[in-house]
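Exercise 7 asks you to align residues with tokens for two separate proteins.
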Amino acid sequence: ALEQEMKMHFLLNRGGLGRGVSLAGMIVLAGASQALVTNGSFQSGPEFYADGWTHHWTAWARTDSTFNGVGYVGSSPYGGRFVTFNEGNSAPLNWIKQDLVTVVGQEYALRFAYGASGNDSDQRLNVKVGTLDTVFLDGTGSYNLSTLWQEVEVNFFATSTTTELLFTDVGSGGHQGDMFLDNVSVEAVPEPALIGLLGLAM
């Protein structure tokens, strides 16, 4: 419906309304880039769980204060809660997921922050969404919640109107470290032609 609305804006106004037409296109385009992930920084929800997400085993939503009491310092720059994997020396393959409403064939940008704690050199996070299926490795480890994060941006294409966003701990499950996840977002990537139109309207 959004794509049809955008086409109608441009077809109805090809007679040369100039900057007013471009401004209308800009308004429609802005609506297309809305965030698709619910509660991407995990700030809402009861202890261990984040609203809008499905958790498996020890993929838990935790707080800065919980870890500050066991040798960690600082706080997440994305808010007071984040997701941890492999806490308490649990087995790997714990996961957290959310279904997104998408458009088939549309390109999307996934952004998130992740990091490893402690001394374990085999912390691995598998990310699956649409056409993307890849593993991110962090073997550095840190006890500083303010600085351990790495920010990632990767693109994917939707193959269905409902797309599962899945983060899975695929590390060794060692006792000396956990994998952290925070600040997850997904937005549609604008078509190149529409980006050009936006530039003309400025």
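Second protein for Exercise 7:
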Amino acid sequence: RADLSLNLPSPDAFLPDLSGSLEATLTAEGTPERPEGQLTARGRELGWQDQLAIQTLNLDARLGAGLSLESRMEAATIRGFGQTLNALVVEANGTRDQHTVSIDAEHTEAGLTLAFDGGAGEAWQTWNGALARGVINLPEQAQTWQLESPAAFAYGPSGAVTFGNHCWRWQQSTVCADDQTLFPVPRIAYRINRFPTMALGP
């Protein structure tokens, strides 16, 4: 068993251009073939090259038997690239072969919830699964769009990211797409059905 504590009141001494304060504790046990452990990290007023700033960052992760991961990251007031996220929560749970990843993001103008189910290939070079749940909340427009059904999502050995056919629904309105390529060459096209023109107003 090994225990490690890290306190960096000036993290730029460890990593140039990183500002703020960072504390972390790590507990590791088991064998190289069957490792287990727990990681806790807390960051305050973090910044990177004047491009990214995070007011608070909390990470809790546990690696259990069978390389099963339980993790949760919470961040508040993230500023970068001209945008501000009020809050971001990312959870990842499961094994390499079968896991879930959920993302909850809050912006002043919108809220986003995504949940992915799937598994990775050898050395994490591929990923196959689905976007199992999706919710887009637009409070100023009083609209909540939901993914109608799970949609295939994959990262291939060539680096291509694909997104299967899917629809987002709000009341009687839908925004639908056939199979898409998101990366490296985007091929994206949506169809809007039954969208009331009055909903376009402020």
